[in-house]
Amino acid sequence: MVIMAAMAALSLLEELILGAEKPTAMLVHLFHPSFHDSVPADRLLALLPRASIINLRRVSRKTKAWVEEHDPTLLTRLQVVYPPPLHAMQENSTLDQLSHDCSSLTIKALPSSKPMPAGTFLSPSPAGQIFKIVSKMSSLRIVPPAHDAFEPVLSLRLALESSPLKSLTHIHIEPLDIASLLALRWGAFAAFKDSTWTAQSVWRGVKSFRVGMTDDWLRYAHGNLESEQDERQQTRMKEEREFYRQAVQALHNYFFQFAVHGTLERLHFEWLGRDVTGLNPLLLDEEAAKEEGGRWFSAPGTKWKGLKEVWLGGVHIDGTLIQILKQRLDGLERLMVSVDLAAPELKGNIQTIDGKEWLDVDLRPAIQAKAELEEGTGGRAESMVVPFVLKI
Description:
Distance between the termini: 65 Å
Low-confidence stretches: 1-8, 22-37, 117-124, 377-392
Number of strands: 12
Strand order of the largest sheet: 1-2-3-4-5-6-8-10-12-11
């Protein structure tokens, strides 16, 4: 074993070997657990870095079985970088060997190095090769770059829509900015570049969708045009306000694509940054009405079917808004809202998830009670018990 201490920080296993008086027995025990019983084999695997475990898995059938027996879920979550480097042939080969175990894939997109020429057609390859290799995955997370995100995200969307991902049911995109949002639109007459014939089946198969969206553009809605401002300031503020309005309409149209098909069951939307209170992505027509009566927003309110669970982070929620959501979202059973933005009249269990506090508002009792009242009990009148309906 060659230890390159000058190139990178030592792993826990390398530090242990350097400090051991007789590392040979430990190394032999790594391949032959019956050779020496002073060092437990499972502890060695716990000390190995992830890259070494992947390489150890490829040494022989015995080491492969040993690694998989130690932690069967070790290689179910993989992460790749897109676009891949020029020397990515070995990485693709490794990914191919691990594809049968991978159920969750994270793709970290890098910013485009050069601007896309006008009229350029983006090929789904090599992203398409990645999706074909891990075609059995059920969960996909896309991490767009902080800037110049449109081209790589668009290429990933085209590759995703041209791949047979029958098991994909969960997609997580974070952080999402307006450029990435425009690249991800897939509905008819809305998608940038024509969607393939498989696009509908890919997006319709998604049951759980999570979005973390940047909120830097929300501040453009609060600019005031004043007479004492010079012409340059007024022009800039007009452009920012127009950008804000177009972004709101784009966000509304994006979620309409999912609502019209009625296959999505769980939506987790959260504003990142929290510089200002975020808009409600499911009630953007109501949000637009607060500014100039919503004359600039002509789209009707979106009605959902099949959506049972909604998470809204960074969005103010009160009892009136819940009533509107219940009218728009037929079958909504559970609503998770940020504790700091929930109105005092809302009741529910507080849960801490990933360091954030959420208020769990359970709407199922009201729905079930209403159904029981409509269907009746079928028993005698004196034995009927009228269920309590909680109006939120």
